[in-house]
User: Fold this.
Amino acid sequence: MNKTLLMLAAISLCTTVVSESYRIGIIGTGYVGLVSGACLAQLGHSITCCDIDKNKIEMLENGHVPIYEPGLAELIKENRLKNNLHFSSNVKSCIKNNSILILAVNTPSKENGEANLSALYSAIHTIINHINEHKTIIIKSTVPIGTNKKINEKILSSGLLQSEFDLVSNPEFLREGTAVHDFMHPDRIVIGVSSDQAANTMEKLYSKFLPETPLIMTNVTTSETIKYASNTFLALKITFINELANLCDITGAKTSVVAQAMGLDQRISPYFLKPGPGFGGSCFPKDSQALAFTAQEINSPMLTVQALLQANEIQKNIPIKKLKKAIGEDLKNKKIAVLGLAFKANTDDIRYSPAINVINQLIAEGALVQTYDPEAMKNMRLLFPDIEYKNSSYEALENADAAIILTDWQEFKNLKIEKMAKIMTSKVIIDCRNILNIDALTSAEFQYQTIGQGSSRSTRNCSYYYFCPDSYANAYR
Ligand code: UGA
Assistant:
C-alpha cells in the first residue's frame, strides 16, 4: 500500500495509462446510474445496469428511458445496438458476473437533513452475500463524509478479507439537463482509494479521458468531502447572488451587470451567479443539508451552510411576494399562469422545485393556477392533480391576471411579448429567471418584476460593457 497515495490529494496527469475495457455492473438506474452506464458503454466498457425496480428495467429493455435527459435515449440505443449496454433486474447475477460494481442508488434526505443510506446499505448487503471473486466496489452515490470507511468496516465485519475487495469513492459532477455532456467532458475526475490496485483499476477505467482531464487521486474521505464541498459552494454562490439581487431590487442596481463584473475576476468566475427563485433539484438542497448535519454532529458547525439553507427557503417566497406587490394582497380567484415546473430547464425533475412552493402558496390563497412546462407536467400532476395543465405557454397565459416564470426553458425565452399582451387579462409578469426582454416588456406596457434587474429599460451605453446583459446568458453554464 502506497502511503503517499493515502496521505496526499495528488493531482496526477497520467501519461502512460493503458486503455482497458471492463465488464461493469451498475446498481441503481436513476440519473447518475443510467447516464454513467450509457457513457461508460460509449467509452467502450461492457455495462450491465441493474435495479430492483422490475418495471423500470422492463421499460429500459423495451427501449423507453424513464427520465427526460437530452442525448441519453440516443446513447442508450446506440450502445444497446453495439451490445455494450444491458439491463437486468437480477442484482445477484449482476454482482456475480462483474468484478467492478458501481453503486449509484438514491441517498435522499431524512426529515432532519441526514442522508438516508438504506438503499446503499441494502446494495452492500447483497454484495456481501453474493461476492464470488475480488470486487472493486465504486460508490458513486453522494454519501456523507465517513460513509466509505463505515462501509469498509461493515464488509470486513461480515467475515470478508480486505484482499477480497476494494472500496472506491468516485463522486459524479454531472448536472441534470446536460448530464451526458458533463460525463463525457469532465472538468476533473475525483477518486478516493485505499490501495494501489484500486488506483490502477480506476485509472484504466477512465483512461479515455487521460491525460487531458485532471485526475484527483486521493483518500476516500477527501473524495467524499470534495463532492459536498463542490455542491455546497455552488449553492452558496447562488444564494449570495439571490440575496444580492434582493438588495439590488431595492437600490436599483442591476444584478446581472454586477455578476458580470464580479465574474470577470478569475478568482470568482462568471458561473452560478444567476439569481432566481431559489435553487432546487435533488442535489443542492439535500447535499447542503447533509453537510450542515455532519458538521453539527461532529461539533464543527458550518454557519455559512446553515445560513444558505435558511436564505434559500426565504428566496422561495420571493415570487409570491413580487406577485402581491404587482397585483395586490388578495389572490382569491385570480388566474395565475405559472410557466415552468421543473427545478430548472431541460429536465422533467421537480424535486425541491421552487414551483412546488409557489403553487402551494397560490392554492392556499385561493388563486386559480393554470400552468405549463415542456417536460415536467406529468411529474407535477402527481403532486397537484387539481390545477390546470395546459398544452403550451400561450394557453397557460390566456385570460391570466398575471404570469410567473419560474424556469429558464428556451421556449419561455422565445415568448412573443406582443402576443402575450393580447391574450392576458392583465399585463403582469413576474420573471423569476430574468429571461424576458425588459425593453420589449416596457414598450408593450407590461407591469413586470424581475429578480434584481430593476424596472428601468436597459442603459443606453450597455454596448460599452465588455459583456452585455444579453450576452452574459451565454456565459452561464
Ligand atoms: C448539481 C451540480 O451542478 C452538479 O455538478 C452535481 O453533479 C449535481 O448537482 C449532483 O450532485 O448530482 P443539478 O442539481 O443537476 O447539478 O443542477 P444545477 O445546474 O447545478 O442547478 C441547481 C439549481 O441551482 C437549480 O435550481 C438552478 O436553477 C439553480 N441555479 C443554478 C441558479 O438559480 N442560478 C445559477 O446561476 C445556477
Residues 1-15, 458-477 have pLDDT under 50 and may be disordered. The chain has 21 helices and 15 strands.
